[in-house]
Specification:
This protein is of the alpha/beta class. It is built from 26 helices and 21 strands. The protein binds adenosine-5'-diphosphate (ADP) and magnesium ion.
Length: 699
């Protein structure tokens, strides 16, 4: 029996009631869980501050000195006890609002005390309220002068008596019991290279650090280990997949591709597009299934890459499909592909939730017989009734809208899985992509089509509205089109957010018929009506498009030059960037106007300022990552894999890179982990993969 798997209730001082609480509140079930429940911060009682050099923030400080005077001072409500504390450099006020009578009686002047507490600053004067006050003589006899761990906790735990002290004592009991249970998990060569302390030492020091240096080394060791094993899993999976998952061999580029490329393509590919098409082509020729993520900022021309990839599939006798997250997008892809492939002998169909039954049946039949070459659509594509004769390549646009299960479904439609190309305009910072999508190959379009001017972005408030309207009119006079986007569909009570309908009405007054025509699109309209309104805008029959965020992804109207975002402070960064990407698609100067009230959170200000300062999707993604943390950024499907115990994917990127390099090195030297010196890695690895199936979260 593995001692570490012992239920936590058997630990001294815990028992069944506390065990239930620990399980419910913190997910701690076994000795091992507790051992790996790390403090989220430490109280440093090893160093002393001088009063004349206190940090100008509200951190906790420890000071050694004497009380030179004290008195009770009446104030507006009640009284307070105020003591002047002196440490040889300066003085600080200690205050008590409760229990001051007996505290005052116990205070000794001209006696050495150790004071600990949080600073309050009033201008240049600092004070500490209700400090922890210990006589120096007592302090010396206690073990106070150390690092004290602070464990994550909940109100319920505190109320039920599981205090920090109880946690700390439990850890002490635990260590006494399990001190022989520590096994090294990293190979010697890595430990030597990086001078890592042992696993046992690190685990002890993370709970009971002797000093800052030991703590830092313990943290490094444990973070490294955590990231190393994630990388091991990702790399191993990638390797096994390459070995095992066979794919169709697309051996040639044939007449469809060549004809399109020589006679129909409307522009010259950018270098980045050429490179990516080459990467995809190589991938699909290997006999292994392609599983590739295509990242490219909004407007970088991913659709053309998709089209060319599909043509290669068709050249090899296979069918292709393109799946988009919204009806509007699917519609638009359908139209643009049809337009592009005009004059070529190819059949394309569109399948969405609103496709009529009769037509649906026709599509099903054509798909199964193979007479339909390309199917474009929404989620409707992965319904069970949809069966391809021989799907060779599946392209998924704007993948962050799709769940993992849905992607997996596409695979199951054939004997061999189709090649998969996932396209996204939400740039994922490289390090993060590498740790989350370690198993996907990544292509990046890092170049915009030539002649694009960067979009001018400005921040405006309600008081500028008339100017904004004037500007819109000027642009319309130049033949341009305008988007105006609102965050909400219906007015929500008590909130002063601009409501779409309100906005529409006031716009209709400002931009009256017949001179101006307005389209409106929002989530509560029927797909048919949405399409109709959208289509009018695409064809230039309306000059203004008033919409909610349904137009966020992919919509392509190159003639639109102004994007106005109402209540911009309510949008997330990547959403703002997506929306802005709807303009700047032609060769003329485009503008993004962020409308926002004066009052907004600091985070919202950062988001808006970032938008004003840069057009670079990767830069924006970095800021977004810092503001929101990786879990949110990746969406819930992927966040599971990112719930790390100690490492932080933002702050620990350097460690992540190191861990990845070592994992690569180990796997290339000993892919099956057979070597005796890697035995502990093999054992650890198989334990991890048995307990938690990381693959469920990704790809
Ligand atoms: P996204 O990557 O956001 O999906 P699109 O594929 O919609 O971008 O392309 C944006 C616009 O740029 C489209 O109007 C497209 O026709 C155009 N485009 C794409 N590639 C090129 C190119 N190499 N040269 C000129 N225009 C291009
Ligand atoms: Mg697109």
């Amino acid at each position: 029996m593995d001692l570490l798997q012992t239920p936590i209730e058997y630990l001294k001082g815990i028992g069944p009631n506390r065990a239930t609480l620990l399980k419910e509140e913190l997910g701690i079930k076994t000795y091992q869980d507790l051992l790996h429940f790390f403090p989220n911060r430490y109280i440093d009682r090893t160093t002393f501050h001088s009063i004349n050099q206190l940090p100008r923030n509200t951190s906790e400080v420890q000071i050694k000195g004497t009380i030179i005077s004290h008195k009770i001072i009446p104030q507006a409500k009640g009284k307070r006890l105020s003591a002047t504390f002196y440490d040889g450099t300066s003085t600080i006020e200690l205050v008590w609002f409760r229990g001051y009578k007996w505290i005052q009686e116990s205070l000794k002047t001209n006696t050495a005390y150790i004071v600990f507490g949080r600073l309050n600053w009033y201008g240049s004067k600092a004070s500490i309220a209700h400090p922890e006050l210990t006589l120096e003589t007592e302090y010396k006899q206690s073990n106070l002068g150390a690092f004290h761990p602070v464990y994550p906790s909940t109100e319920k735990l505190v109320n039920k008596g599981i205090s920090q002290r109880v946690m700390k004592q439990s850890m002490e009991h635990l260590f006494r019991q399990v001190h022989q249970e520590f096994h090294e998990t990293l190979p010697d060569f890595i430990r030597n290279d990086l001078k890592l302390i042992s696993r046992k030492e690190a685990t002890i020091q993370i709970h009971f650090p002797a000093n800052q240096n030991q703590l830092t080394r313990a943290q490094f060791r444990l973070k490294f280990e955590e990231l190393f094993y994630i990388q091991m899993q990702l790399l191993q999976k990638n390797r096994l997949q390459k070995q095992k998952v066979k794919g169709y061999v697309f051996e040639k580029v044939g007449s469809y591709f060549n004809e399109y490329y020589s006679n129909h393509i409307p522009f010259k590919l950018t270098h980045a597009q050429q490179r990516v098409v080459r990467e995809i082509r190589n991938d699909m020729g290997t006999g292994k299934q392609m599983n590739r993520l295509l990242q490219g900022d909004v407007g970088s021309g991913k659709t053309m890459v998709a089209l060319l990839s599909m043509l290669i599939g068709l050249d090899n006798g296979f069918q292709a499909c393109l799946m988009a997250p919204t009806e509007i997008l699917a519609q638009q892809h359908y139209q643009s592909l049809k337009e592009n492939l005009k004059g070529m002998d190819l059949n394309l169909s569109l399948l969405t939730g609103s496709t009529k039954t009769a037509q649906r049946k026709e599509i099903h039949e054509a798909l199964e017989s193979g007479s339909l070459h390309v199917l474009i659509g929404t989620h409707a594509l992965i319904e069970d009734k949809v069966r391809f004769k021989n799907l060779g390549i599946a392209i998924i646009d704007e993948q962050h809208r799709f769940g993992v299960a849905q992607r997996a479904k596409l695979w199951r439609k054939n004997n061999l899985p189709p090649h998969i190309l996932v396209m996204t305009a939400t740039p994922i910072p490289r390090t993060l992509a590498m740790s989350v999508y370690g198993d996907l190959d990544i292509s990046v379009i890092d170049e915009l089509p030539p002649g694009r001017k960067s979009i001018k972005t400005v921040l405006r408030s309600d008081s500028n509205r008339l100017q904004v309207f004037k500007f819109i009119k000027e642009e319309i006079k130049l033949g341009k089109q305008i988007y105006i986007v609102y965050p909400l569909i219906q007015e929500s009570e008590k909130m002063d957010y601009k409501d779409l309908m309100d906005g529409y009405e006031s716009l209709a007054r400002e931009f009256p018929l017949p001179e101006y025509k307005i389209s409106i699109v929002h989530g509560q309209m029927k797909p048919k009506d949405k399409d109709y309104e959208m289509q009018r805008f695409v064809e230039g029959k309306t000059q203004l498009m008033v919409a909610t965020t349904v137009i966020e992804v992919g919509v392509n109207v190159p003639n639109a030059s102004v994007m106005i975002i109402e209540s911009a402070e309510r949008f997330g960064l990547s959403q703002l960037h997506q929306l802005r990407g709807r303009v700047g698609r032609g060769n003329d100067q485009s503008y993004c106007i962020l409308m926002s009230g004066v009052k907004k959170s600091k985070e919202a200000s950062t988001r808006l300022q970032t938008m004003v300062q840069t057009n670079d999707g990767f830069e924006i993604a970095e800021v977004d990552l810092k503001l929101r943390g990786p879990g949110d950024l990746m969406g819930t499907q992927q966040s599971g894999v990112l719930q790390l115990k100690i490492a932080d994917l933002i702050k620990d990127q350097e460690i992540l890179k190191t861990a990845r390099n070592y994992a690569k090195k180990l796997i290339s030297e000993d892919p099956e982990l057979d070597k005796i010196e890697h035995r502990n890695v093999r054992i650890t690895y198989s334990k991890i993969t048995r307990h938690k199936n990381i693959w469920n979260y990704i790809s």
